[in-house]
Amino acid sequence: MVCKRHFTFIIFYLLSINVSQQILAAPPDINKDNEVKRQLTYVSYHAVESTPGADQVYSAILIYDLQTHKRHNLYEIKEAIGGLNWSPDGKYLLFVSNPRQFRTRIHVIDATGHVVYTGSSDTDDRAVWSSDSQYIAFQSYRQKSWEIMTMKFDGTEQRQLTNNTYEDYLPSWSPDGKEIVYWSRRDNDNGEIYVISATGLNNRRLTLNLFIDNSSVWSKDGKSIYFISERNSCGSCNESWGVFAMDSRGTNQRSIAEMNVEDWFWNNPPRMSPDGTKLTFTPKGKGMYIVNSDGTDLRVLDSNPYSLEPMWSPDNQYIAYESDVNGYTVVNIIKSDSSGKQQVPTDPNDFAGSPAWIP
Predict the structure, then answer these.
(1) C-alpha angle 307/267/87, rounded to 5°?
(2) What share of residues in the chain are helix, strand, coil (percent, to 5)?
(3) Over the stretch 23-46, which tens digit does the pLDDT of each residue have?
(4) Residues in contact with 21: Cβ distance below 8 Å, sequence separation at least 6, in sequence order
C-alpha cells in the first residue's frame, strides 16, 4: 500500500479525473502580474492496489497556467515519475520514471506531449540539461557502479565520461556546456567534488577533506560552484551541514550558510535563481531557506520540515516547491520575498510534486 508520508526521492501527485481545461480558484497575489506569462508543470499520481500488497501507480504531468488558472494533462504513464526538467529553450521536457522498485529510466517528451526518447536502460537517473538544450548529463548504473554519462536529447551520441569501481553521482553542467561537476567516492568513502570535461577528459578533484562534500551546482556566470558539505563538523560533536562555495577551479572555498543541522538529503543541491543572485535550499527537516549568493540575508521561506525541490520561475519572482499537508504532498508557490504563499489546487486524496516552470 502507498504511505501518505513524504518520501525522499520523488513524490508526485496524480489526478484521477479528467482535468483538461478545468477552471481553478485564482491565486490572488500571483494574478497581479498578468503581464508575465507563467506556466508551471508538476506531476500528479495516485495508486491502485493491483494485487494484494502491491500497487499500480498512475502518473500524469499537468500544466497549470497561473494567469488563466486552468490546468490540463500533458502526458500520462503507468509508472511513478519525477525529476521534471524543461530544456532551457522550452522545447523538451525531461523526466525520470520508476518502472519497478530501485529502477529508474529517462524520458524526453516535446512541449505537446509527444515522446522523443524513452530509455532502454532502467539504471539511469539524475538527468540534467546542457545550456544549449542539446545534451543531457546523467548518472548510470549500467556498469554495476554509478558513472557519469551524456547523450543528445533524442538518446543518440551516448558517451560514458567516468569509469571506475566507485560511485560517481549528481552531474551539473557548466553554463558554457564544456564541463560537468559531480560528486565521487573514488578518493574516500565520504565523497569529494570533481569536474570533468564534456568529452570525458581532464578529470580533476576540487575538494579534499575528512567530511562529505556533495550536491554541487554552477553559478550562472560559471565562475563559482555551490555545494553542500558537513565540513564544519567535529569528531566529538553533532554533524553540522551547510551551503558552501568555491571558485570553479576549487580555490577560495568558503561558507555561504551554516545551518547546524545533523543531516541533509544527499541528492538535494542548492538551487540558484535565474539571475544568479540568490540560492534556495532545503536542509533535512528544517524547511526551505533563501540566501544571497554571497551569503548575506539568510531567511526562512517556509518552515514546513517537508519542503523540498524548490524551483525558481524564469523571472526570479516565484519559487515552486513540494511540501506536506496532513500527510499528503502538495505543490506550493511563494514569492522570493516570502509573501504570497499559495497552494496549487489539487483534488482530495491526490498527491502533487516535482514542479518545473516552463521557460
Answers:
(1) 85
(2) 0, 50, 50
(3) 333 444 454 554 566 999 999 987
(4) 70, 71, 72
What residue ranges in 99-184 does DSSP mark as E strands?
A: 105-110, 115-118, 124-129, 135-140, 147-152, 159-160, 168-173, 179-184
3-state secondary structure of 56: strand
- In sign, the C-alpha dihedral spanning 61, 88, 343, 218 is positive
Q: Give the SS3 label for residue 34.
A: coil
∠50-10-206 over CA atoms, to 5°? 145
Q: Compute the C-alpha angle 127/132/138, nearest 5°.
A: 15
Distance CA 220, CA 178 (A): 14
pLDDT digits (tens, 9 = 90+) for 279-314: 999 988 889 999 999 999 999 999 999 999 999 999
Contact 30, 343 (CB under 8 A): no
Contact 353/309 with Cβ under 8 angstroms? yes
Do residues 85 and 109 lie in contact, with contact meaning Cβ atoms separated by under 8 Å? no
